[in-house]
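Practice problem 4.
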């Protein structure tokens, strides 16, 4: 197993209680930094083949869902484990539309928050606050829990759009019951109904970001839920984890890199210097994929389409040149474009501000977080890994007046 290390047995003096962070002397102990390669749960929600560049949601390839499905249908599929009938989907969509509206006190809270914090911090606060007013907060039956889940998924786009409108001193735009999940977000964000083609592109981007196995934020949600805490707390844990620059926000940094390069003719010099100085090229490489990320292939098509539509091929031209050079230089090492490389270009053409890219990621991934929480807690066991004590066997306590 990759990155598994075998540590020497502990000395007899280090035997002790589990809660004291020491382990009994039972021979060599396996240790995997960051739990890499460790199987922590069994799941039927999604599977990733990093060698072949394949991603499936409950057995259906992501390419098929992007071509034929909608975010709402995909969300139903991930949550309930089966494709909905037309009547079931209609009911699910109607429920999501009904639950888009925020409690008045939550709306007031968002409007009163300072305009400068990172939007992910605002999202954490608002999701936690919304949980206080959830009429189903005490429900533990499957139907009640699922309604809480759907409410969170429906409310997150409203939270993000309301906050952006408030911080930019624009009039708040309430949800439009005639629009789908993706189109409604663009409507609330911009104050006008989106172009249908662009709404569909955003819908596809949401599908592609909806689920991706036991990544850090999903695992964080599962750890919180495994204590039998509430679903809002689990989602807040996931949001806080996604905020970290090693997990979310890479697409924002991709655009910053493209801006820094400026023109296609400067790509070769930039990439060569970055590789020589061992600086990371944003949007390339993945902990799981060792070939082209299938989500990146799809998003690249729409980045090209939007570039042509707006007559602005600056970003896509630079991006394609970087891709060509990186695959030539590092493709043999399994370094290829990941989902972040082209998603930022797509979001920019859709008018989404860069600092909202990670909240939009959370908006899409909320269903994956919730699906894993629901699945894991059906056969729950609290997560409790053990640390390996590497400190001294014994240290004498010195009274404070004798310390130097």
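Answer key:
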């Amino acid at each position: 197993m990759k990155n598994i290390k075998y540590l020497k047995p502990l000395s007899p003096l280090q035997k002790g209680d589990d809660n004291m962070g020491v382990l009994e002397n039972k021979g060599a102990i396996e240790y995997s930094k960051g739990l890499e390669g460790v199987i922590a749960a069994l799941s039927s929600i999604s599977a990733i083949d990093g060698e072949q560049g394949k991603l499936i949601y409950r057995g259906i390839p992501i390419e098929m869902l992007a071509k034929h499905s909608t975010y709402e249908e995909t969300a139903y599929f991930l949550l309930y484990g089966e494709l909905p009938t037309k009547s079931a989907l209609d009911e699910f969509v109607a429920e999501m539309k009904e639950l888009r509206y925020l409690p008045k006190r939550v709306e007031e809270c968002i409007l009163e928050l300072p305009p400068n914090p990172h939007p992910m911090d605002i999202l954490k606060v608002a999701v936690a606050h919304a949980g206080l007013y959830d009429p189903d907060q005490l429900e533990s039956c499957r139907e009640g829990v699922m309604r809480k889940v759907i409410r969170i998924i429906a409310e997150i786009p409203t939270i993000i759009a309301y906050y952006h409108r408030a911080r930019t001193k624009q009039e708040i735009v309430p949800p439009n019951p005639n629009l789908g999940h993706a189109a409604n977000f663009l409507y609330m964000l911009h104050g006008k109904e989106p172009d249908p083609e662009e709404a569909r592109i955003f819908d596809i981007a949401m599908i592609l970001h909806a689920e991706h196995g036991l990544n850090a934020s999903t695992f964080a949600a599962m750890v919180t839920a495994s204590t039998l805490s509430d679903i809002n707390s689990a989602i807040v844990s996931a949001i806080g984890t996604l905020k970290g620059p090693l997990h979310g926000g890479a697409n924002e940094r991709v655009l910053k890199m493209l801006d820094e390069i400026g023109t296609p003719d400067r790509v070769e010099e930039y990439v060569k210097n970055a590789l020589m100085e061992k600086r990371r090229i944003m949007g390339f490489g993945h902990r799981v994929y060792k070939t082209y990320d299938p989500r990146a292939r799809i998003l690249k098509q729409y980045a090209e389409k939007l570039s042509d539509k707006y007559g602005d091929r600056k970003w896509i031209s630079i991006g394609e040149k970087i891709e060509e050079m990186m695959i030539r230089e590092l493709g043999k090492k399994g370094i290829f474009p990941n989902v972040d490389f082209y998603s930022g270009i797509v979001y920019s053409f859709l008018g989404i501000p860069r600092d909202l890219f990670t909240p939009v990621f959370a908006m899409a991934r909320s269903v994956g977080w919730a699906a894993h929480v629901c699945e894991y807690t059906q056969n729950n066991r609290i997560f409790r890994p053990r640390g390996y004590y590497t400190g001294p066997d014994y240290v004498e306590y010195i009274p404070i007046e004798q310390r130097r």
